[in-house]
Design goal:
Elements: E1 2-7, H1 18-33, E2 39-44, H2 55-60, H3 65-85, E3 90-94, E4 98-99, H4 101-107, E5 111-115, E6 119-121, H5 135-143, H6 145-154, E7 158-159, H7 160-165, E8 171-173, H8 178-190, H9 194-206, H10 212-228, H11 230-240, H12 247-250
Parallel strand pairs: 1-2, 2-3, 3-5, 4-6, 5-8
Antiparallel strand pairs: 6-7
């Protein structure tokens, strides 16, 4: 099953309020722990994917702004951490412009499809802020330090085509085709070997922290577990029998 999570405050550009961040953290936890969910699709309603934090509310908070930001970033960061570490792949369909904290939500996906009309900016320095939403962790891993410095410090806007060209997102899709294409990709992942997907996510996440030898040890351990598990046995059997594997029937290792 594909679980779809939709940012649904189009009148605000899907600005991240306390309520939205809390709901996102709750829903992320639910889909991560639901054994019937085999992949997750994150998208948004309206013209924007996410404009970042609710700047109007932040401006109105006065001396309590630190408390308000903590009330937003705590559940937002919990949601992003869940998306990073859950044992199922995440597809993000970026239906429109992205800024600020929305950038972390957009980039945390394993597969990020973006509408042709979308564009990307960090936006923080425009209001005198530093970044959040895991963008300072995700950006250097995706596009390198030098490009990350430019985006963070100069607040340069990227078109969808440029975002693809530098490796920020996976590919551009015509606006009208984005909903169908993103659902198709999520369904393909849901029909795949969820155990292998989980292992791939863990291995890629650890690749910047481990030595080559430790990473290869982790690779050997995981491929052995997958080969011995029900999905691996089904995959090998299907290959030798020249048929399409049925990983949903095989279950997990």
């Amino acid at each position: 099953m594909v679980a779809t999570l939709t940012l649904d405050s189009p009148d605000t550009g899907n600005a991240i309020s306390v309520a939205m961040a809390e709901q996102l953290a709750l829903r992320a936890s639910e889909v991560a722990s639901d054994p019937t969910v085999r992949s997750v699709l994150l998208t948004a309603n309206g013209r924007f994917f996410c404009v970042g934090g609710d700047v109007k509310a932040i401006g109105a908070a006065g001396e309590s702004v630190g408390v308000l930001l903590g009330s937003i970033t705590t559940p937002l960061h919990a949601a992003i951490a869940t998306f990073l570490h859950m044992e199922k792949p995440l597809v993000v369909a970026v239906n429109g412009p992205v800024a600020g904290g929305g950038l972390g939500l957009a980039l945390v996906g394993d597969i990020v499809l973006t509408a042709m009309s979308a564009h990307f900016s960090m936006a923080y320095t425009g209001i005198g802020f530093s970044p959040d939403g895991a963008s300072t962790w995700l950006l250097p891993r995706l596009i390198g330090l030098r490009r990350s410095q430019e985006l963070a410090l100069l607040n340069r806007r990227l078109s969808s085509d440029e975002a693809v060209s530098i490796g920020l997102v996976t590919r551009v899709v015509p606006d009208a085709e984005l909903p169908l294409e993103s659902r198709s990709v999520a369904a393909t992942l849901a029909n795949g070997p969820v155990g292998a997907h989980a292992a791939i996510r863990r291995l890629l996440l650890s690749s910047g922290e481990l030595s080559p030898e430790d990473q290869m040890e982790a690779e050997a351990r995981n491929v052995g577990l997958q080969a011995a598990g029900s999905e691996g046995r089904e995959g090998v059997a299907a290959f030798t029998q020249k048929r399409k594997p049925d990983f949903s029937a095989a279950g997990r290792a």
